Amino acid sequence: MVNLEVRRQVAAFNAFGTHLTLQVAPFYDAGRVFEHGSTFPIGRLHNVLGVGVRGIAAPFIVGYLDVGYGGEGAAVFTGIDYPF
Fold it and tell me: What are φ and ψ of residue 59, in 5° steps?
């Protein structure tokens, strides 16, 4: 799997005693899930292009919304997680 992402800060402010940051992140993913270990891992990769939005409440919480489009159509992922 390959993931390329460029995060760009678009806003930052303090609210409720916490520093908040808003980022936009265009991304490209390529990967493949295969049934057998003998399958050539980089043959027929699935490609996805999209954009993500990250809301960060420093230093511990990241909320995200990712919208991507690939060979099987559009997909949306969202959640709250720790930064990586």
Answer: -105, 5
- The total of other beta-carbon atoms located within 10 Å of residue 80's CB is 10
* pLDDT in the model for residue 83: 52
Backbone angles phi, psi at 32, to 5 degrees: -155, 140
In the chain, how many domains are there? 1
Look at residue 22 in the predicted model and tell me its pLDDT. Answer: 95
Per residue, the 3-state secondary structure of the chain, as one string, reads CEEEECCEEEEEEEECCEEEEEEEEEEEEEECCCCCCCCCCCCCCEEEEEEEEEEEECCCEEEEEEEEEECCEEEEEEEEECCC
Owning domain of residue 71: 2-81
